[in-house]
Amino acid sequence: MARKDLLDIESLERRDIESLLDQSVPFKELFTRSVKKVPALKGKSVLMLFYEPSTRTHSSFEVAAKRLSADVTNFDVGQSSITKGESVRETIETLQAMRTDYVIVRHKNSGLPGVIARHTKASVINAGDGAHAHPTQALLDAFTIKEKFPDPSGRKVLIVGDILHSRVARSTTMILQKLGVQVAHLGPGSLVPKLNRDVTRFTNYEAAMDWQPDIVYLLRVQMERQDVQFFPSLREYHQLYGITDLRLEQIRERGLYIMHPGPVNRGVELCDSVMDYERSLINDQVENGIAARMAVLYWLKPGSEQQDP
Amino acid sequence: MTLLITKALIASEDSAELIAADVLIEEGVIKSIGNQLKAPKDAKIIDAAGRILLPGMFDAHVHFREPGHEAKETIQSGSEAAINGGITGVVMMPNTNPSIDSGTVVGQVLDIATKQARIPVYTSGCVTKGRQGMELAGIEGMRKKGVLMLTDDGDSTGDPAVLYRAMQYATELGMFFASHCEVPELAGPRALNDGAMSYRLGIKGSPACAEEIIIDRDIRLAHATGAHIHIQHVSSKMGMETIAWWKSRGDVHVTAEVSPHHLLFCDEDIGDYDTHYKMNPPLRTKADNEALLQGLIDGTFDLIATDHAPHTPFEKSQDFASAPNGITGLDTALVSLHHHFIATGQFGWDLLIKRYSAEPRRFMGLEAAEIAEGKPADLVLFDPEKQTTFTKDFMKSKSQNTPFLDKTLMGSVELVVLGNEVLLER
After folding, report:
1. Same domain for A169 and A270?
2. What's chain B's average pLDDT?
3. Are A172 and A159 in contact (CB under 8 A)?
4. Which entry of A38, B318, B342, B414 is 20 to 30 Å from B388 by CA?
5. Distance (Å) from the C-alpha of residue A85 to the closest C-alpha of chain B?
């Protein structure tokens, strides 16, 4: 069913997810043509509201919107009064006045895109809010997995790293579970919460490998998010949970796929040679991100206050 | 003024039984209680058949925001909210701006209260200047103006040595301490219980141990110094059990309060980031709700207090992380406690009166309000069969940040009489 906003995966039905994934396929095929553009959103406006720095997600959305022929405006948050403590409610007033059709928001505060969505007519797409949700990342991940496993039900995905602070872990875990995929989490005890009853929890790499995953999904490790240390050093993290050359050998022997939402920290989550591993899906994820985001933009229906001419 | 309330069901803290009688009030005093009392000439007669006559409630934990944040609440609007909810006395917390940390500020606040509030308004004072946890506040100056309770409410007094010294000092002056219990390093900046809900919402949770550690620390300091310590708004089962353990030892003067929201709501109620369920200490789990209710019934909790914390609609309409902590409670407390606990038979009017009227007043060194001949009139007529809908217009607080906004509950405060004045008649 069409809806105004995409704020999280939790509120999506399995059939919504499947139709979005299906819709991503023809958009991806478009990329191999000489003209990569369709007129689906011609005359519509997309506002990019990124309060947190992002290169990949930002450009992925921008390319997706432009390939649908939408007009894209960047609300330059770094220069605006937002950094001077302007409240989200004042920003909303500004957005309303601009009469934009789509707003793509990234913010460090969990739940903030929902506040914008409630107070604007525009379709709001959550491009990542705090540790809460990153629904388009989840869609592109599911799309990437479906390309390798057309029926992913019953497959096993091991997500490795900072589960506690990761919106990617939350949204991707949820979408995979909705598609019948088994999910396990692996990471330091301080970063893997104990409360996910539906998720198998590991703090030991070898034990997690014994679970026999089909895909190892590495999360970006961020030292800078830590107010009090969650683990002693990146070196120690790499030793315990990183994909070292030795571990890559085992992964290759078993034919496992590797995924990562990017950008990668070489020498932390993975060693250099993982980037050249033939079953690394990291570049597929980037390309699929554009298709999945086109599908989302195409699917959402902004609440209109003006009549179509 | 002469007032005859007929066929009322009179409630008291001593018995669950309601006694049907007429009550005659003359010149602010309960003149007689009996059957078929004759109405004197000029008496106003109120037929109270089927309705319950209670002593006025007393709330020992309210934030009236004046001075400094008058857009949220003033002493006048806050005290009107209290009257609207059947509450005839309150104790303000000192986290105003400036903080209530000297005799001068206490004098200013009480002066406003005398002029603008129709009920007695008392205030607590800070332990430390500006609630900064460093230098002791002007304790004797505040005492001379009538302050009994010292608290840095909103935060714990961070340095235990400061609180230890303050207890040694102020206990000798006849004052006592109230603690908001929280280790800030563990609690983090957001008021949300650490658990499945905080994970789902992606907001750093505050574990119950952050509160429980300071509950134990502050009672221990009181034990060491001989102070009376009052533990505010307990939210967790283990925090309550810590208090019960200290009480069972019998060698420290400890009292504790529980707020209606910690009895009624849990973290799951936050749902989709509903800021009307954001307060500090945070809502915990259903198991905690049930344990706290037992603690109220068995007397681990001496008082019910709302922690009435008004914030403007603008502030509360921000995202969950940015919205301030706290919900209002004065307009809604009595009706919500009736609806959820008395109407369902979980406890009686006697317990409610004891915990929300009699004990809070004694705790503040006051005489308990009582419906008895010769006592000053301080009473509330409550209709258990009539519903109240808590619309924005119904509530008298300047702010409407409550989960009960636009909800309809069983029970209605129909009449509030204090001294020679009818403060409310619906």
Report:
1. yes
2. 97
3. yes
4. B318
5. 11
Would you say A77 and A50 are in contact if contact means Cβ atoms under 8 Å apart?
yes
> Encoding tokens for residue B267?
């973290």
Assess if residue A8 is contained within a domain.
Answer: no
Query: Who contacts B113 (Cβ-Cβ below 8 Å, separation ≥6)?
Result: B75, B79, B120, B121, B123
pLDDT digit string (tens) for B247-304? 999 999 999 999 999 999 999 999 999 999 999 999 999 999 999 999 999 999 999 9
Whether residue A272 sits in one domain with residue A168: yes
Residues of B within 8 A of A89 (CB-CB) are 314, 317-318
- Interface predicted TM-score (ipTM) of this complex, two decimals: 0.90
In a domain, residue A176? The reply is yes
**Predicted TM-score (pTM) of this structure:** 0.93
Q: Which of B317, B318, B320 sits opposite A110 (nearest CB)?
A: B320
A110, B203: Cβ pair inside 8 Å? yes
The structure tokens listed for B220 are 């221990």
Q: Do residue B319 and residue A109 have CB atoms under 8 angstroms apart?
A: yes
Burial class (CB in 10 A: 0-12, 13-18, 19+), A83: exposed
Give dist(CA B371, CA B378) in Å, integer.
8
Q: Say yes or no for a CB contact (<8 Å) between A195 and B314.
A: no
Specify the 3-state DSSP secondary structure of B373. coil
Selected residue of B316, B319, B320, B322 to mutate for chain A interface (largest A Cβ count, 10 A): B319
Asked if A87 lies within 8 A of B322 by C-beta distance, the reply is: yes
The per-residue pLDDT for range A246-285, each reduced to its tens digit, is 999 999 999 999 999 998 999 999 999 999 999 999 999 9
Residue A257 lies in a domain: yes
Place of tokens 């905690």: B288
Encoding tokens for residue A62? 């921008």
Q: Give chain A's domain count.
A: 2
Instruction: For residues A180 and A277, state if they share a domain.
Output: yes
- CATH number of the domain enclosing A40: 3.40.50.1370
pLDDT 10s digits, B78-119: 999 999 999 999 999 999 999 999 999 999 999 999 999 999
Question: Do A246 and A109 share a structural domain?
Answer: no
Taking contacts as CB-CB distances below 8 angstroms, the residues of chain A near B196 are 195
What's the gap between Cα B301 and its chain centre?
Answer: 12
C-alpha span between A130 and B192 (Å, rounded): 15
Whether residue A3 is contained in a domain is answered as no
Would you name the residues of B annotated as active-site residues? 307
pLDDT number for residue A88: 76
Question: Are A166 and A214 in a shared domain?
Answer: yes
Q: Is A148 found in the same domain as A85?
A: no
Q: What is the mean pLDDT of residues A160-182?
A: 97
Any residues with CB less than 8 A from the CB of B197 and at least 6 apart, and which? B205, B267, B268, B270
B196, B202, B318 ranked by CB distance to A110: nearest: B202
Length of chain A: 309
Contact B319 A195 (CB under 8 A): no
Interface test with B, best of A195, A226, A229 (most B CBs within 10 A): A195
Q: Are residues A103 and A157 in the same domain?
A: no
Walk me through the domains of chain B, giving residue ranges and CATH numbers: 2-53+373-425 (2.30.40.10), 56-363 (3.20.20.140)
A 81-100: CB under 8 A from B: 87-89
CA B289 to centroid of chain Cα atoms: 17
Separation CA A245–CA A264 (nearest Å): 16
Give the torsion sign (CA, B397, B400, B402, B403).
Answer: positive
Instruction: Read off the pLDDT band of A54 (50, 70, 90).
Output: confident
Same domain as A192, residue A125: no
Domain span at A123: 14-133+288-299
DSSP structural state of residue B301: -
Is the CB of A228 inside 8 Å of chain B's CB atoms? yes
